[in-house]
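User: My collaborator sent over this chain with a note saying "see what the structure looks like." That's all I know about it. Can you take a look?
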Amino acid sequence: MARLTPAELNAAKKARQEEAEMAARKREDEREALEQQKSRSEQLSSALKALYDEMDKLNRKSPAMSISELSLGRVNKTIRSVKELLAEAQDDFVDEIAEFVAAGDMPEYRDVVLVLSQLKAGLERYQSERRASWRALDQFSY
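Assistant: Without extra context I'll predict from the sequence alone. Here is the result:
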């Protein structure tokens, strides 16, 4: 078996070191992505809960009443945001939710509450699937 020259040994050592650095960068990038997912998920969960609570209160008073333009804008933004976050999760129930169209009659509170409850359930499924990796993230944060 042939022995490696000092130059070959140095080259191999350097290659191993570069591979280790690349692996460390990849782990850090994955960690940052997980942190962003967690943060965005918590933000959306909070916003969705607040919107759902308000729409549910109004729904209890007048379920067949139409929502306002402002409410429609907030609901559609929430739908868009949750669907963007959950796009990679491939949740069939969330995927088939569409934004409300402002043309003609505005949606009724009962329809909005139904859609928001489906979004809440989808976001909760997403969070429960990722909770273990987020917990590990919290343990190793520095």
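A starting point for your reply to your collaborator: The chain has a mean pLDDT of 90.
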